[in-house]
Amino acid sequence: MQERFVEAGGGRIRYLAAGAGEPTLALWPGLGGTGEAFLRLLREGPERGCRIVALDPPGHGRSSRMPLGGGADAAAIFTAVLDDAGAEAAVIGGHSYGAVAALAGLAASPPLSARVQGLLLYDGGYLSADVTEKDPRESCEQHISGFTFATWEELFAAGRAAAKRWDEDLEAAARAAMVERDGRIRLRVDVETCTQAIHFVDASAPAKLPPLGTGRALLLRAGQPPEMEEERARGVLALHEKIPALEVQVLSGVTHELLEEEPESVAQATWAFLRSL
Length: 277
Description:
Elements: E1 2-8, E2 11-18, E3 24-28, H1 39-44, E4 51-55, H2 71-84, E5 90-95, H3 97-108, H4 110-115, E6 116-122, H5 136-146, E7 148-149, H6 152-162, H7 168-177, E8 178-181, E9 184-187, H8 191-203, E10 216-222, H9 229-242, E11 246-251, H10 258-261, H11 263-276
Parallel strand pairs: 3-4, 3-5, 5-6, 6-10, 10-11
Antiparallel strand pairs: 1-2, 2-4, 7-9, 8-9
Helix pairs in contact: 2-3, 5-8, 6-7
């Protein structure tokens, strides 16, 4: 596995790369996450004859803070990473906020759309972040200030207590998303980056996107908690109007954190989708 950096959008984007083959799968993690969120896919990619690249979004991990005002900015980041990796054809996608970035980037960039053969959306891109319900900045301030720990072991102990499963991949992902600052272990993401991401997701809801020219798309969506099913159904219907070839697979026993809770199911669905292209 390689760690690489590329200039994009007036800053520097860090990404991890593994494997070889076409199309290249380029992945963007959820809010607060880094390329390490996809460690299992990065490890298995070479065995499957696939090339995987997974990036740190702007203001996340080791990537620079930079504006992310719309789909054109997301497209520029995906394009820079794919170019640096030497990828001609691609499948792009991501988890949550990352899925939105993939959709918005495709909608904004015909050149990116022309090289993309498919979309992989991990429980994202079909639900809106309604900024009218609660002030995004206030939500970010509360989350970031509350998500602090005295030591790394305290962080990992909290992760083990909260997670349905815990392993070295989750520990590495947690470590990459955090930083030691002022004697505390804190999220690397700051309030400005978090607020920007929420507005980006709201502006890129399915109803606000044009029809997308991508060929095939797979949405792996959560089935828990059940009280969200009505909202999920509306979101899937709205996204299907933009992507007629959208396929939806429901992981009935998992929540939004499907990469953490069901990595085996996510990996199997990913490899099957890539084989089918």
